[in-house]
């Protein structure tokens, strides 16, 4: 269930959701199965798993600008990490962890 919407994953492990900030509410676009294997030698990095999927990279819409500065900053961090943009890449630092705590708690 995602905000009251039943989502049948079958064997999939990724849910593409759009319109999360829309007045009409979110919509589940599709599901997908990706290889969930993470490097066990270091801190697990979901961005490395996501980077292996062209469908996920395309769906992120990293070129879209958000009106809320905090949301834009979080989107910039996620996109820089997932896309592997070395020029703007943010380390997994206290700044990112503070933003994650802010949004996940």
Notable features of this structure?
globular, alpha+beta, two-stranded antiparallel sheet, 4 helices, 105 residues
Describe the structure.
The chain has 105 residues and is α+β, with helices and mostly antiparallel strands. The chain has two domains: 1-33, no CATH class; 36-104, no CATH class. It has helices spanning 46-51, 54-59, 69-83, 94-104; strands at residues 14-18, 27-32. The protein has a two-stranded antiparallel sheet.
Task: Put the structure in a nutshell.
The protein is of the alpha+beta class. The chain is 36% helix and 10% strand.
The strand order across the widest sheet is 1-2
Strand content: 5-15%
State the shape: globular
**How many domain modules?**
2
Q: Which structural class do you get from the secondary structure elements?
A: alpha+beta
Helix and strand string, N-terminal first?
EEHHHH
The N- and C-terminal alpha carbons lie at a distance of: 19 Å
Largest sheet: 2 strands, antiparallel
Radius of gyration, whole Å:
15 Å
The count of strands amounts to: 2
User: Can you tell me the residue ranges where pLDDT is under 50 for at least 5 consecutive residues?
Assistant: 86-94
Overall pLDDT score: 80
Tally of helical segments: 4
Helix content: 25-40%
């Amino acid at each position: 269930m995602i905000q009251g919407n039943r989502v049948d994953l079958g064997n999939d492990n990724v849910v593409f959701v759009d319109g999360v900030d829309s007045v009409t509410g979110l919509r589940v676009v599709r599901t997908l199965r990706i290889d969930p294997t993470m490097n066990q030698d270091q801190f697990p990095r979901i961005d490395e798993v996501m980077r292996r999927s062209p469908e996920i990279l395309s769906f992120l819409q990293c070129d879209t600008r958000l009106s809320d500065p905090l949301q834009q900053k979080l989107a910039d961090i996620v996109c820089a990490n997932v896309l592997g943009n070395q020029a703007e890449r943010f380390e997994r630092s206290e700044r990112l962890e503070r933003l994650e705590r802010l949004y996940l708690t």
